[in-house]
Amino acid sequence: MSTDPSRTQVSIDESNKILRAAIISRILVLSLIILWRSLLSPYDTSAILNPNCLSSSDSDTSSVLPIWPKIGSAIEGSIVWDGVYFIRIAQCGYEYEQTYAFFPLLPIFIYILSQTVFAPLVPIIGYRAVLGLSGYVINNIAFLLAVLYFYRLSIIIWKDRKTAFRASMLFCFNPASIFYSSIYTESLYSLFSLGGIYHLLSGGNTIAVLMFALSGFARSNGVLNAGYICFQAMHQAYDAIARKNRIGLAAMTLIGGALRSICIFAPFIAFQAYGYHNLCRDLISDEIRPWCKARVPFFYGFIQDHYWGVGFLKYFQLKQLPNFLLASPILFLALCSIAYHGKLWLDEIAFSLGFRASNKEKNDAQVSVEISSEVSKENPNLRQRKMMSKEQTLSSCLSPVPSEPGTVVPVKSDYASISFIPFVLHLAILSATAFFVMHVQVATRFLSSSPPLYWFSSYLMAYRGRCAYFIWAYSAAYILIGSLLFSNFYPFT
């Protein structure tokens, strides 16, 4: 099949525009961080304090006096909130039990970059400043790549370049932007999560599993990405039985999906085993932590509960009402997104997870049969009008939002036409977890990598024009307020 050069050029031009917008958004956020840090005094000035590592393996470079200490001090002072933990882990490893709440992928990348590319900067700005600089570079580059994956994934799902472009622009300036340019895991998680889904839908199962596994090595909720593998495997197995009558092929497909899912869980399980080895072995009975004695030791849940008070309904307190208000916009947007996209598949397709055709599809098929039987008896003009009506009816079943002329992109397989369902289920699980279990204010960044939020917002901007002002105002306000509060160690999310 030949490729249309004009369409390829349009795709390249749009990708370049998206990349430029992503770069501008990162420059904007980093500029705001520098601005607010220079204008206001931080609430907590202890960020530059850096006690020696407990282990003797601490690098001698950490004690070298830098040539430009002011630059190094400025970078160290910008390391706040969870960034302090990630930098400490990169420098000293896992020293305390509570540090195991932070997964190792980002610290590993920071350590590698600080020991290679940025190693010559250690004598100039200091070792800890180099670690911080490495974290900033990693996360901002990861965000740029995540945006490109988001755009390509949006095209595959929606088959509409303009919808994908609008959604990608929203992702570039999302309300949690401050975290995508700080030393947090949002950028890496988004890169590997979105990249994994894109490669899965493009037929690259191996690289998809690898990227999903890395997303689980960056954040605990990365293991939920195994759901996309399971969803695909179930549909392929159903296809093998229903259409090809090959039960053996269906069984092999399910086994393959299960094995790939295990690979995605492997980094998470390995990290739990690593923590058990370090915190539970070679200790006398009185020193063993409670979670070590469990039949299935699971330190992550214990640490979240013991040190941060994370648990079901634990945050439902009157004094936390301001935090619920802070998270209310993203939670409301998530609820509307779930309701809107769920309504598109409200018939049998929603309840059967896409295994059966909906009544609407069946009716459309019946209409097409009736039209086919009548067109031979009618004049050419009437036949043409009915054929056009049939095409519009059938296309409305495949596209949730009306596609504009010249923007439709061919779908790779039948699976892609119903592949939106796991996105909605994934967002629903994350939203319920953020509202009922977690500290609710983190919902803004916790849900910020979920594509349906931006796809729904893109729909509102295109077909509900007044909503565009509210969406952009919401994003702009949270970018400004977030960069102001977060960078100066004031509570934000």
Automatic annotation (TrEMBL):
Native source species: Papaver nudicaule
Family the UniProt entry places it in: Belongs to the PIGV family.
GO BP, sorted A to Z: GPI anchor biosynthetic process
Annotated transmembrane regions: 21-39, 67-87, 99-119, 125-151, 163-183, 189-214, 324-342, 420-447, 468-490
Entry membrane topology: Multi-pass membrane protein
Protein name: GPI mannosyltransferase 2
Record localization: Endoplasmic reticulum membrane
Top-rank EC class of the record's enzyme: transferase
EC number annotated for this UniProt entry: 2.4.1.-
Molecular function as annotated in GO: alpha-1,6-mannosyltransferase activity; GPI mannosyltransferase activity
